[in-house]
Amino acid sequence: RAGLGEYAFPVLIVNGMQPGPRLCIIAGVHGDEYEGMEAVRRVLHHTDPATLRGAVVGIPCVNLAAFETATRSSGIDGLNLNRIFPGDATGSLSLRLAATFLRTVIREVDALLDLHTGGGFGEIAPITIVQSGYETLALGLGQAIGHELLWMGGKWGGTARISALEAGKAAVTVEVGGGGGCRDETIAAHVDGVRSAMRYLGMIAGTPTMRQEYRIVSGTFDRATSGGFFLGRARPGGECGAGQTVGVIVDPFGDERQIIDAPHDGLVLWIRRRASIQPGEETVIFGRVERVITS
């Protein structure tokens, strides 16, 4: 434990009876994203080594310090693990955790799936993030997850995905669901996506779930200018037109303080599910369809 000068993350490994790729599946980079954690356990517990080609390394919760406080960031040093990779072996707990993960796990595997949700205060549409500039390495893996929406990750850094790609490993981030609970349908969506990726990699029998078309999206974050009570009027993945109201912030009496309208035609990628809101906090992520590609 951290107070005793030691810290660890749980690791599950299934070694197949036949040679093949080594896939790492992680969840719990953010401590309030629960469905991915259970999905990792279910995949590992139901993978038969007799028919598996290669090996599956599962880490249900990378960031126990955040899980124990049910927060995105560490309850020990306050850092967001998803923004500090490749870490620092001599830094604070989260920095050391990132560095240890890269040194002990990423260098030993061939591919990485990083499972996320919309977090404890929001819900996200099924989206796979494929880092822009690494399409040759990761696009096929991202398409194999089976989600129609592909977000080409931009300039933000510090993710395990980017560090893995820089090390020459195929890596994508998979987003779906959230809102603070642990819903079976979201767990199942993650499990299905992982299984499809395993088929794409030739690790298990079957054909991956490849769509004929995928929509490439970009995202714009909207933030509150007023505090109060947030009421969402859209669903993640739903279409929206320019000027359409997708949320409103009201005061304790129900009077409107802020109306959130779509800035352009597109869709809602993520919407807030926590009612309490302060100025500067996220309300919605608006998506714009940049283009359509085929598999």
UniProtKB/TrEMBL annotation:
Domain Succinylglutamate desuccinylase/Aspartoacylase catalytic residue range list: 19-200
Any one GO molecular function term: hydrolase activity, acting on ester bonds
Key words of the record: Hydrolase, Metal-binding, Zinc
Pfam families in the record: AstE_AspA_cat
Superkingdom in the source lineage: Bacteria
The keyword Lipid biosynthesis is annotated on this UniProt entry: no
Record-given protein name: Ethanolamine utilization protein EutE
